[in-house]
Amino acid sequence: MRFQNSVFVDLLKPIDRRAFGQIVARHKGDAYDKSFKSWDHLVVLIAAQLGGETSLRSLEAAFNANSGSHYHLGVRRIARSTLAEANARRPVGVFADLFARLSCELDRRTRRDGAELLRLIDSTPIPLSKFHDFARSNGRIHGMKMHVVYDPGVDRPFCVEVTPANVNDVEIGKKTPIEAGATYVFDKGYYDFKWWRDIHEARALFVTRPKSNTRLTDLADREMPQTRGEGYTVLRDCEVELASKGDSKLPMPLRRLHIQRDALKDGKPQLIVVITNDMTRSAVEIAALYKARWAIELLFRWIKQHLNIRKFLGENENAVRLQLIAAMIAFVLLRIAAHRHDIELAHLRFSELAGRFLFERRPIDRLERPPPKYQAARRRISPRQLELAYA
């Protein structure tokens, strides 16, 4: 009978064990937990994400119950006390560097020639309970933030960072490597003239919304051959400059667009003002770029609804960070598997089935089909024995 890997093994195949070992050595990830190594820890946390385990006790029971299916990965039975200690001590950089490597692998598999370099930047709050005494409040939530740079064209998140909730978004945005020729789209949380200037000087573009107190002087109205887009209308496209003087002056050409959405808010049309340093694209294309920012909100919604980041396997900060990065690793592994095996299922259905059949031995590209029925081998009849057959 042909050997068949479990679904979990196939999902973990993109992880290069040798490269992961180098990452562990660089961060000294196995310095304190020699019996429960970084590889064991990684496999267990990914299994918790895909299997939807919400406590150390349930994770221990579910993982050990399937020990016959994951022994060949080099992972043994786990104890929740050992896992709790590893969650508190293992360096977050081990998982963060692995995520960055897998993100590049996803980009290599899904990148299309001539695809537009679009980067969406945003953060999502991670509420924590009062038992997480390390958490901070920003006036709206008590917890942490997960900051993500996202490429919607290839469904690729990268540059993930977890911070306390009171850290300003723009402080993390400034750490984002700027790619020449890319367009960065973000909201008012990343309002910083110096950073905008850095983006422009790196030969990149940005599209964002100015604050209401930003004083802009109109220079000239631009022609708009087309004003209608999908779900919106561009009312005005104007070249502008900052009215303020001194250090806050932006040494670059700027455009301000007034966009009216078709969808009503409180029974009234919603007007959006957008500012950009892109002087080439049409007004409708600029408006479409800002509309594309909704894709990162959908990413956050998907992660929160279908991965395990609502209940945490530890009450210390290190455990929360490790679990959030493990969730993003699980997300990328699902996307790589979908592209590698040409999965036609919706992302939601594929992730649900992968979690349900995680330790079963079945082809990952046929999760939605029932396994073939077992056909018993026909008993061989001796040539000296009479056989009754119908004519």
Automatic annotation (TrEMBL):
Residues 117-333 form the Transposase IS4-like domain. The keyword Ribonucleoprotein does not apply. Keywords: DNA recombination, DNA-binding, Transposition. Residues 4-76 form the DUF4372 domain. One of its GO terms (biological process) is DNA transposition. It comes from the Bacteria. InterPro entries: DUF4372 (IPR025399), RNaseH-like_sf (IPR012337), Transpos_IS4 (IPR047952), Transposase_11 (IPR002559). One of its GO terms (molecular function) is transposase activity. The keyword Cytoplasm does not apply. Transmembrane segments: none annotated. Pfam families: DDE_Tnp_1, DUF4372. Belongs to the transposase 11 family. NCBIfam families: transpos_IS4_1. PANTHER family: TRANSPOSASE INSL FOR INSERTION SEQUENCE ELEMENT IS186A-RELATED (PTHR33258:SF1). This is IS4 family transposase.
